[in-house]
Amino acid sequence: DIEEDSRLSFGLAYTRMTFGQGQAIGNMSTKTADMVRTYARIDRTKGDVTGYLQWYNNFEHNDETPNLRYTAMENVLEGQLDFHLSDKHTASVGGSANWMFMDQRSSDKPGYVNGIGESRSEALVGAFVMDRYKATDRLEFEAQLRGDFYTETHADWAARLSAMYALDEAKQHVVRVSAAKAFRTPFTVLRRASQQ
Fold it and tell me: Which residues, given as ranges, of the chain have pLDDT below 50?
């Protein structure tokens, strides 16, 4: 611990997978995959406020000879602050920034995978705010608002308003009613296909 109310953690992991010869897309192939994951995180509590800041990186190199090979990397920085305003009221704010890179290559021979064939990078930045209020011992209300900007599409937002009611004192059975507006970014492959 770097302070009494702070905690620092970090880690590194490596995995290598090798697959024997098999048939893929009509061709005999062998496959290896190397993956590395690193992260660092700091958690801090001060009074009625808790929060964290975290960074992690995922790296993967995949080689499926002779069909295709690709290298992918993802860097993510995210953080959140939680405020304990009272015994009945809590609020949270947070955000994240995500940068992704992929370099995919494939054979130009007939019958082989036709991959992206070039390097691509994308970025996603988002922020959110959440408020939760305990009206009674069994009834709670929650409101959420989030905004995102994605380089491959555009800026968008999502929101949700919920009410939760516990049917018993043990709160083992809870009824939730929600109204929401949501947005989900489609996969890169689907976006590319829709543009052709």
Answer: 1, 109-114, 189-190, 193-196
For residues 6 and 12, is the Cβ–Cβ distance under 8 A?
no
Q: Which two tokens stand for residue 50?
A: 């808790």
H/E stretch holding 179 reads strand 174-181
The reported pTM is 0.74
Q: Which amino acid is at 151?
A: T
Give the Cα separation of 72 and 121 in Å (integer).
10
What values do phi and psi take at 189, rounded to 5? -60, -40
- C-alpha span between 165 and 138 (Å, rounded): 5
Numbers of helices and strands, H then E, in the chain: 1, 9
pLDDT at 26: 55
Distance, in Å, from the CA atom of 164 to the CA atom of 85, rounded to the nearest integer, reads: 20
Whole-number Cα distances in Å, 187 to 14, 30, 60, 125, 192: 26, 27, 18, 16, 9
67 burial class (0-12, 13-18, 19+ CB within 10 angstroms)? buried
Q: Tell me the chain's radius of gyration from C-alpha atoms.
A: 23
